[in-house]
């Protein structure tokens, strides 16, 4: 017989699992060349986010991305954050000249980019190119 305590424990564990999955889906990691190359080679959707901690536009994009990455079409994205202030060589490698630049990859190739746009529909359209 299942006790109420067991049911509560199972429900709590299930809720924690859902929360962990959502957190992983929206996880943004600092750019690492080896990890990025492996993600692109794997062919799945990859997002490169060139941002600065002090950039208002970057923060607005991040808020939109956080909402979108919770939904199933976009939860498979791997997101790599390039620091605008300290990683100029990485920016040059991507051909990114400004902060608030979002670049998406699918099937091992770049499929789109967006700079300075904070509109949810524009960011979603960019992500949709890679799913």
Describe the fold and architecture.
It is a single chain. The protein has one domain (4-128): 3-Layer(aba) Sandwich (Glutaredoxin). Helices cover 47% and strands 21% of the residues. The chain has helices at residues 4-25, 33-42, 56-68, 88-94, 120-128, and strands at 28-30, 46-51, 78-83, 101-106, 109-115. Strands 1-3-2-4-5 form a five-stranded mixed beta sheet, with helices on both faces. It starts with a helix and ends with a helix.
Layout of strands and helices, then pairs:
Elements (H helix, E strand, L loop, with lengths): L3 H22 L2 E3 L2 H10 L3 E6 L4 H13 L9 E6 L4 H7 L6 E6 L2 E7 L4 H9 L3
Parallel strand pairs: 1-3, 2-3
Antiparallel strand pairs: 2-4, 4-5
Total beta-strand segments = 5
- Specify the oligomeric state: single chain
CATH class: Alpha Beta
**Main beta sheet:** 5 strands, mixed
CATH topology: Glutaredoxin
Strand-and-helix sequence, N→C? HEHEHEHEEH
Tell me the overall shape.
globular
What share of the residues lie within helices? 40-55%
Rg computed from alpha carbons, rounded to a whole number of angstroms? 17 Å
Query: Approximately how much beta-strand content do the residues carry?
Result: 15-25%
Poorly predicted runs are 6-25
Residue-averaged pLDDT: 85
Q: Which sequence of strands runs across the widest sheet?
A: 1-3-2-4-5
CATH architecture: 3-Layer(aba) Sandwich
Distance between the termini: 45 Å
How many alpha or pi helices?
5
Number of domains: 1
């Amino acid at each position: 017989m299942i006790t109420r305590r067991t049911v509560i424990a199972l429900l709590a564990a299930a809720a924690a699992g859902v929360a962990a999955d959502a957190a992983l889906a929206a996880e943004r990691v600092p750019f690492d060349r080896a990890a990025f190359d492996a993600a692109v080679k794997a062919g799945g959707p990859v997002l490169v986010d060139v941002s600065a901690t002090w950039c208002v536009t970057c923060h607005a994009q991040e808020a939109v991305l956080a909402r979108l990455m919770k939904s199933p079409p976009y939860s498979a994205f791997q997101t790599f954050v390039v620091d605008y202030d300290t990683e100029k060589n990485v920016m040059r490698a991507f051909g990114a000249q400004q902060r608030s630049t979002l670049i998406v990859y699918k099937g091992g190739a770049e499929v789109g980019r967006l700079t300075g746009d904070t509109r949810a529909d524009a960011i979603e359209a960019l992500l949709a190119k890679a799913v």
